Amino acid sequence: MFIDESICLLQIMGNWTSCCSYSSPLSRRKDANGAINEFAQEGEESVGNLQHISEREQDDWNTDPSVHPKVATIFLERSKVENGLTRKQSQSQIVDFRSLKKSSSCSTIYLDDSTVSQPNLKNTVKCVALAIYYHIKNRTSERQIEIFDEKLHPLTRDRVPDNYDVHSPEHRHIYKFVRTLFNAAQLTAECAIITLVYLERLLTYAEVDITPANWKRIVLGAILLASKVWDDQAVWNVDYCQILKDITVEDMNELERQFLEMLQFNINVPSSVYAKYYFDLRSLAEDNELTFPAEPLSKERAKKLEAMSRVFEDKITAEFLKNGIKKWSSLDNVSSNTVARKSVAILS
Fold first, then answer.
1. CA–CA separation, 126 vs 121, rounded Å?
2. Is the pTM of this model over 0.85?
3. Contact at 8 Å (CB) between 217 and 210?
4. Which of 250, 229, 241, 131 lies closest to 187, judged by CA?
5. How many Å apart are CA 153 and CA 255, to the nearest integer?
6. What pLDDT does residue 162 have?
7. Three-state DSSP state, 161
8. pLDDT at residue 20 above 80?
9. Which residues pair with 112 in a beta bridge?
10. CA 199, 204, 209 angle in degrees (round to 5)?
11. Which residues pair with 27 in a beta bridge?
């Protein structure tokens, strides 16, 4: 596992100071004419001292969707844009994944097993891929950074086409790339949500956009970092080299290091932010008719749900009795040996 040791911070009398200095690489971005410009990141000195997250302006927190739970996610906003205009509902372009919506009946009850604490892996990855698709399709600029440019840092030995930065990838191509990494590394659905959080945090902090030229390496960097932060048994960088055969460990280490620098080493994800991204992904799925799978309620599952409900009911009853509030029980739960049942009326 690669561990960045280029910077360490000491807190002395409430102030953050660096115990070592280094020269961060200059960022390279393409302007509207295709020219590459080099410059230092905003908040950095010429010697490369990185701005610490505690030094960020308070206004930045209030507009950052990856930190503030009430700020709208970028991908959901971009999914509602069509030809520069905001529309109410997304036009689905993922026909391959459409499915009929199952409805409950008297004989069969369908349940959606995907929850915020245990999301459905397959559909969560599909939704994250769809969010990336809208990021690329409705991007607002062509700003790029060298480490993410696939032409300069190819993932395979195959020749990168000359028009690699022109045509936006389709949703199924993005999903296939993300699914391959998640299946091979055995990552979880929660990791996919954290990946999207880091991706949007990168867009906010580094002021870049996901484009056809850099989307694979940006997604790879986000997955690499999310898998180490979230999973107890993290995947080593060399393991990704077994998945992507032609990439080197040195390239993976550099990708991780620069990704961390651009995030200003802020890898914390509050639970409220995680929940917001989960539910926004659900909204994105609904807008694009990408429904989460509903499974029929089995006898075993029904018994578990009944047991859980009884435990909760007993807990509420105990609270009522503790507070002196009388809770009336149904006659179905009253023993005939202790209480004589009397009919209020006789119907003939």
1. 9
2. no
3. no
4. 229
5. 10
6. 85
7. coil
8. no
9. 294
10. 65
11. 39
3-state percent breakdown (helix, strand, coil) of the chain, nearest 5: 45, 5, 50
Report the distance separating Cα 240 and Cα 250, nearest Å: 12
What are the phi and psi torsion angles at 17 (to 5°)?
-130, 155
Q: Cβ(194)–Cβ(230) under 8 Å? A: yes
- Pairwise pLDDT comparison (57 vs 188), residue with the higher score: 188
- Write out the two tokens for 59: 């206004």
Cα Rg of the chain, angstroms: 26
Q: Residue written as tokens 């091979």?
A: 184
27 SS3 class: strand
Q: Residue 235: name the closest of 197, 194, 182 by CA.
A: 182
Each residue's pLDDT tens digit, 121-180: 999 999 999 999 999 999 988 888 999 999 999 888 888 888 888 899 999 999 999 999
- Any bridge partners for residue 10, and if so which? 17
- Six-digit token pair at 57? 């302006």
Is the per-residue pLDDT at 22 higher than 70?
no
Read off the tokens for 138: 């409705």
- Residue 188 DSSP SS3: coil
What mean pLDDT is predicted for residues 3-12?
39
* Residues 220, 199: Cα–Cα separation, whole Å: 10
Which residues lie below 8 Å from residue 283, measured CB to CB, with a gap of 6+? 76
Rounded to whole angstroms, the Cα distance separating 151 from 214 reads 9
Q: What is the pLDDT of residue 283?
A: 92
Give the length of the chain: 348
Task: Report CA 265 to chain centroid distance, whole Å.
Answer: 18
Tokens standing for residue 175: 């999903």
pLDDT tens track for 244-289: 888 899 999 999 999 999 999 999 999 999 999 999 999 999 898 8
pLDDT in tens, 220-236: 999 999 998 887 666 78
